[in-house]
Structure formats: structure tokens, C-alpha cells
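Homework help thread (please don't just give me the answer)

Our assignment gives two proteins as sequence + C-alpha cell strings and asks us to describe the second one. The first is just a warm-up. Here they are:
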Amino acid sequence: MTDDQLDGPGRAVGRVLGTADATPLQFWTAVSPDSYLQLDDVVVTRRELPDREPVTIAGVVTQVRARHEGAQFDSDVFAIADGTLPAQVQEAAEITTTRVDPEFYVPPAPGAAVYRAEGDARARALHFDRMERRIPMGMGRDGVPVYLNADFLDGSRGAHVSISGISGVATKTSFATFLLYSVFRSGVLGGDAVNAKALIFNVKGEDLLFLDHPNLRLDDATRASYAKLGLDAGAFPDVRVYAPPRVGDSSGTPDVSSRLTGVDSFYWTLSEFCADRLLPYVFADADDERQQYTMVVHSVAAHLARYAQPADGGVSLDGVRLGSYADLVDHIVEQLNDDETRADWAGSAVGLGTVNAFARRLIGSKKDLGRLIRGDLALRRPHSINTAESAQVTVVDLHNLPDRAQRFVVGVTLKSEFERKEKAGTAKPLLFVVLDELNKYAPREGSSPIKEVLLDIAERGRSLGVILVGAQQTASEVERRIVTNSAIRVVGRLDPAEASRPEYGFLPPAQRQRALLAKPGTMFVNQPDIPVPLCLEFPFPAWATRVSEAGRAPSETLRSITQSVDPFAVVGSGADDDIPF
């Protein structure tokens, strides 16, 4: 009986090549004339040993080549094509080993039959059989589900996800939201899924404001893809959306245009700004990181926390009632310009030039932060972003805010959420934080309050149940410790210059080249369980990604927190019930 007739794990596709070195970790296989192998295919072979059980060697195709055997010159290809020169076309595939079972590391024998791994053999080759809790991520190139080990996502053995790729092409945010959907709906969290939370910062357009609306473009093929992954195709069932107040609107109406229901305004009162020492987050952009007025920032923040008293929505300071952020800034600048009070606010060892630099930056923040730090809105009105009291998925819309205001919101929100988890002292319920443009908030160089919070999450968040899902165009520009602490690394379409950076050293050479051509929806996922990144395609979102795709949302998400608390709110504001004024 020949090797081809043996009961293998799948179909025989070739034999281990004898003209190239075969090692326990990498080998080449000649592909049979009636078969083929493509990149990412999973194969398996067997090595017979004397006095030991056979060793099964499984791997993933990481390169494929074809050549004419019998040709000596480049021009011979024309003679071969005309039939005047005999030659044979031979394809060969490079196999990178993913599993050796039992772990006896010997090379496969040249000439040994190589099989396409299917069914249980494929699951063993990719270590899926060792994953007690598997999260479906998408389909492999063979159309079979690919899984993520939940232990490396929820903090059991690792945590955090880093997603890199070109903006608008790599579908980073789409993959992050699909991963969240899979985590919440696959049953992998068991009973903890009910209480698990997600905090998503929306920085581009209003595409993430419709996660609770079913996608009208969903077809039967897409529903079948979800079913193959063990998921129901649908929208996120429990979503709460927060947006900043409109500029110049004294009523605090949310600044959104496409979604008119189920949106709440978020802001901070002047009293909260002073008492919680939020001033450092006003100075959190790239320019501030290089300045010398940090001492002034913290001195002024301490002074505000000590002496500012709540006063009818605003604060009272030095006997003066301040009713807006602009009033507060003007008062601080006035005190710093007064020779008699400057030392009380900034300290005696600070030079006048440093104080003036601080004052200029503070004055410049009035326009950006005026609508976020308020003294004219009712204190009892719900306005805080608190995932513990919100829906399962909380979306914070930032796209209408200038850069300084975006940094302030991200920094303060992450600070408060992380402190809340620290006080709880337990990892559960889990909190997933999805943040795009991570290279802006945690750049490789410099320091800022936001970067310190993100570093805290990356280094200590695992033990507290805070999982960072960070996305960026360039991982090479993100703080190294954040990338290093990410157990899961995902790559979509890459820029050629970025692909050559050492941060992508986990990608085999062929995958680096393919990342330059990857179409939207194609991702390369590296996880600790598997030595080779897996290429996958995740299905089209079952939730609306823009207003034109949005179907009817669940009725419970159409009412905002403000309406559910305020007895004077309009009752029953459903999708078809417009407010008549």
C-alpha cells in the first residue's frame, strides 16, 4: 500500500521536497500535478520513527512558488510553451510548522506524503482543540471558522488588542466592533456576558452611532456566514450614545445630526472640574508635552480643588461667582497676572515667563472646552459618562469636537473609569475600551496625563478587568509598552513604509507583502497560542454603519437617560414619534 492510500487527515496534496532542507520548524512540499496549495492552507504530514510512535507535523503554507524544471535560460520559457523544449511545471509550497505532536522535534522525511488538514486535523494544527473558550473571529481562506483564545483577551492569561492599518481601508474599527459582538454573543463569557461592558470612542463621522440598528443591507449569504461562526446576525441589543452639547446651546442639546433619539449629552460642571482636578487634561496635546509649565498646571489644579465652592451650578472663588468655563479661565489669568496673588496660585519658584506661557494656553482652551465644562446646566441632570450605570455598549461621540476637546474627553473618561474599577477591586465585570487613533493619545515620544492613563490600563488593566482594544494607522508611533502588552495583534492593509518597521516582525515575509494588498475585511491575527499569524475575513456588519443602512432600533434604546429620569420629558418618543416642537 502506498503513502497516498494511507488513511490521512485529509486529501493528499504532495510530498515533502527532497531538494530543499527540511527542518522541524519549516520545510517545503512539492505539490501534486492534480492538486494545489495556496497561502494560508493548513497541511499535515507524518514522520515514522523506530521504537517510537509516529510524529505528526502540521503547518501553514507561508509561500508558494512554481517553476519549469528542465529550463536553463529565461528565454527557454518560449520554447517550452511552443512544445520544442521538454520541461515540467512544478509547484512547491513553504510550510511553517504550527504543531508537532507528540513534541519530538524531528524534520519530516523527504518524500513523505503531505495532506490538506481538514476537520479535527485542522483544529489540532491551529491549536483550536486546546482552546477551552473560543471566540469566532471570521473565516479562514478555506472558508472554515478561525478562532481566538478567550484566555488571551479577557485577562486570564493575557489581555489587550492592537489593530493596525491604513485609515479607511484596513477596516480597523469594523473589526473591533465585530470582535466585541462575537465576545458578547458567542457565549464564551458565560453568565458574565450580561454584565460585561464596552466603551467605544467615536472619532470619525457618526458611523458608530447606529450599533443598535439592524443593517438593511444584510442578505442571506451574510446571515449564513454568521451562522457558520455560531452567531446570530443582528444589531447590538443594548446601546447608549453620548454626545457633547451643541455650541452656544444653553439647554445642552446633543450635537448630533443623523440620530435623533436615544442620545444624551455629556459634560462636566465647573464644580466637578475643580474638585476632581481635571485641569491637567486641558494640557494634554503634543505641544503641551514639550512645555515646562507642568508645575503651574498642578499648582493651579490644587488651588481650585481647595478653594472653589459650588454655587448654584457654577463655583465661588475668592468671593466671586463664576458661571462658565470662560469666567473661570479669566479669573485664573487675572490672579496669575496680579503680583500679590500669583505666588498663591502658581508657587513662588515659578518664573513669570512660565506663568505667561501657561496663561496663553489656558486662554486658548476657552473656545474648545467651553461647551464641555458648564456652570449653566442643572446639577441633577444626568450628564456623566459611567459605564457601570449605562448600557452594555456605551458610545461616546467625539467627531464634532476639536482635537484639544477630544483629548480632554478621552483622558478624563478613561481616568474616571479606571479609578472606578480600581475602587471595585475585582476584574469582573469586564470593561472593553475601544479607542481609535491610539498613536495620537499615546505617542512613542513625550508624556501626558492621557498617555499615563493608557499605560496604566496596558500594564495593570488585565488584573482589573479593563481590556484595551486600540487601533492606529502606525503601530511604530505608539508607546512601545502599550504594543508590547497587547497579547493579540491584528494587521489590516498597511502602508509599504510602515510594513517594513520592526513592530511587524511577527508577520512572515510573505504576509508582510500581502498586507500591502489586503482588501477591506481581510485581517492578519497573531495570538500567543499559534506561532503563525492567521489570515481571515470577517463578515459584513449585521448592524448599521451609517444612517442610510439603519433599520428600526429596539424600543428600549430610543429613550435617553435624561428622558427616563426627567418627569417633564416627552413620553413615548419612539422612532415614528417626532417631538412636535
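The one we have to describe:
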Amino acid sequence: MKGRSPGEPDEDALTGGEDPYSAFRDPTIMILVGIVCGTLVAMVIGLGGPGAVAGNESGPVFPFPDLDDGDSATAVELRIDANRSTSRPGDAVTFTVERAGDDPVANASLRVGGERYRTGDDGTVTVRFDRGGEYTVRATASADGINFIDARRTVTVERYVTDLDIRANASRATAGDAVRFTVTDGTDPVEGTVEVAGKGHTTGADGTVVVIFERAGEFTATASKGRTPTTRFNRSSVDVSVTRRRASLSLTVEDDPVAHEPVRVRVTRDDTGGPANATVTVDGKTYETDDDGIVNVTVEAAGEVAFTASAPDTPAVTFDDAALTVAVDRRTVSLALAANRTRVEKGAVVRFDLTREDTGEPVDGSLSVGNATHATGADGTVNVTFDDPGTVPVRGLRTDTATETFEADGYTVSVRGADFTLSSLDAPDEVARGENVTVEATVTNAGNEPGGQWVKYRFDDAVADREYVRLNAGESRTVDLTTRVAENASTGEYSHGVESDDADIEATITVAEREDAFETRSARALVLTVNSIY
């Protein structure tokens, strides 16, 4: 602080007979110069001195001399003592501000946590700490002629520690179940956080929260709470074991299955009704459903076929297999029968071709022609001779396979010509050697045109008599045929009958000895005897 400047010298003095004015002889000027020089030295020393290092709020201390008394200020370090080294929230701590020599400093300023306190005459002040943490306590003081160097110290207020307690209403659950967790401090509910599988859930005022476990696994639920100004909370955990829930699959065959044709199969979940990504097994073959739970399945054989559906476990569900027995029908295949002609004369040959209508491939099957059956070859063809006049039905057939049912195809063949049948054979049962035997038979033209044929009488495999008979269609006539049994024919049973080109009718006849044969032989023997005598 600068002094007041002296007044300007009197002009007359500067020019009078006295010696001129000199600043070096002016005591006031010299005092001011001394003050400035001392101030500069003090600044250099003060910038590195204890006041600057201690962080004195007033900055560097410049020891200006008291112009009134001429004495310089004395630097004194302050010290802060506390009545306890550790404390808890709510505790009161008594601080004592002292200077060297343990002398208390009255009316010192103590700044703690943004608040300012004053020491009493005994240099003490009591501060109550409402919350935990680390606090810097700073003491400052002022007095005439004394430069107090600030003091600092750190006070730690330790929070109270509370152990959390978490409990679950179930230690074992099924995926999809809700588990209620309750968090307390041992007595009262705590609003905190329950962390499960990396996700936090906030408890309510009652300390509870409900967590739904969407998947199976071993889980640890940890309760925590952020520290308060007065309390720090220790975490607590509880384990919950979650198993997969069971759900059944449903398998539906949407169409009537036919062998060798795709059938639509749908697999759904019973728990949700939604589609299932499943594997369908049929006849040892597996098929995978699409996202809609649908797959097309081809069954190779007809009959009762087992369908099964299975699905892999998900994180939450274990699926029970579905099974269904389905009646699979044979596929119906129509046959196609072709003939090179359908109107023929009696005795004509007709070529038939049997094929599949769906593919045109030849069929190794058979033909039913009237009452006869003819097999086709591998090329599906067969030649048939028509010997009987009339309308003859022809059907192409094939035996059903394990997968296919064949529908027959047919033609009607018209055969023209006469057809002689024989009936009403009238023949004796016995004849003597050397006698005639006569048979009678009815001849009918069963054909659809007039015609003639030889009607023959056969005795013991030899034709004995015959007659040419001509008849209109549907006409009948009786014929008599006769033969003589040889005299030397052996006695016994013989076959005989009537035959035509189209038919035959047979019977048996016994050839016996004639009644007069013994007499004749005796007379001849007598004659021979008499002649030999004479």
C-alpha cells in the first residue's frame, strides 16, 4: 500500500539561494523506495512459501509492514485435530483448530462439505455428518500481525452396511412359469433390483418382483441396491432351477392317402396350436416340415401305415412324439385294351394289346375271353382264337400290386359261324358179338349262321358210322347211327359215342357172348366127330 505523495516543492525554493531539492535527501521518498524493494523481495519469497502450497484462499501473503507501527506479520501454521478417527453417518465429530505449541485458535473458520463453521474460544467446533463419504476439512484464521497458513485434513465417514436377503417362492420351476422374488434387509422390504440372466427387474415398495422364466436352465437371481447417503448394501443371491415344460405334438393327414401319390401332412403344437418344425417319419423315410408345419409325404405301399412326428427340444419345451396309423389306399390305374378287330369268323385269331392308360406302358396281365383266360406277354400282347360263334366278352386284367389297383378294360367280339352241339345220346348199355348197335343223338346248330358238319359214331376209338348234317342257326335234328359188332370181338366194356367238329358225347357199352354161340359150337363139333368116324 502506497503512502500519500508529497506536495510539489515551492517554485521559489527551486530558484532561491538555498540548495536545490534532492529526492535522495528526502526521508519520505527513501521510505517509499525501501517499501517497494521489500515488497518485491517478499513477493519472490512468498510465491514459493507455505501460504501458497497450503492453498490459502487469500493467495500469496505479502508481508507489508504496518505503516502505523512499522512491525512485519508473523507466518503461523494451523493444525486440525478430531476427537475420532472413524465415524458413521449421524455421528458428531469435534474438531480443534490449533497453532504451533498446541494453542487453540478461537474464531477460526472451518469449512466442511460446503458448510462453514466457527471455533469457539477453546478452538473447537462440533460437526455432525449426515451421510457417508470422504470429506475435506479446511481451517483458516486471521489475526493482526499474524499470517495463518491454512490447514487441511480428510475425514472418512463410513456408511452402515446392510446385508440384503432375497427369497424365491419356488426353487424349481418349469419354463414359462412365474417366480416371485422378495428382497428384504432381513426385516423390512427393500426397493432394489433383482438381476436374472443379465436382465434387471425392479422390486416394488413391498420388496417383491415377479420374473417369468422363458427357457430352461440353472439361474441365479441376485438382489442389489445402490448405496444411499448412509447405507451400503451387500448383494444376496438365490438359485432357481428351471426345466423344460412338456408339450404334445398333433399330426394330421389332410387328404385320403393313396400309394405313390403325395399326401399333405400337418404337425402342430398342442400347447399353442401353432405349427411345429418337426420331422415326419413314414416307412423308414423322414421328411422335414416347413415353417407352417406342413410337409408332403409319399407312401410307397398300400395298407395300414404308421406316421410319426417328432420335434427337437427348444430352450423352453420338450415335445412328446405324435403317432397316427393311416389307411393308405392303392392308386387306381385304368387299363386300356385294344383289338385289331372285333367282328370275326369262327376260328379267326384276334390280336389284343393291354397297356396302362396313365403311361401307355404295356401290361403283363391276362385276358378273360368267355370262360377262358389268356396271359399277355411282357409286351402286353396276346393272340386269341375264337372257335365259338356268338358275342364273346373280352376283358383285360392285371393283378393288384401293393401300391396299385388296376381297373379292367374290355371289348365284345362278335364271332360268326355255325356251332354244332350234341345232346340226348340214346345208346344201349350192352350188345352181343355179331349184333348191330344203334345210337341216337340230337344235333343242334347253336351258332349264328347256317352250316353243316359230319356227325360221326365212334366205337372203341374207330369211326363206325357217320352222317352229314346241315342245319340253320338254332335248328336241331335227331340222327341215328348204326354199326355191327364183330363176331370175334372180345367181350368186355367199350367206349362209344357221337361227335362233330364242335362237340362230342360219350357213353360205355358192354360186348357180351351171344346166347346161341354155345349151341352152334356144339353142333359143329358133332359134325366134325361124325365125319371123322366115317
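TA reply:
I won't write it for you, but here's a hint about the kind of observation we're looking for: The two ends are 223 Å apart (CA to CA).
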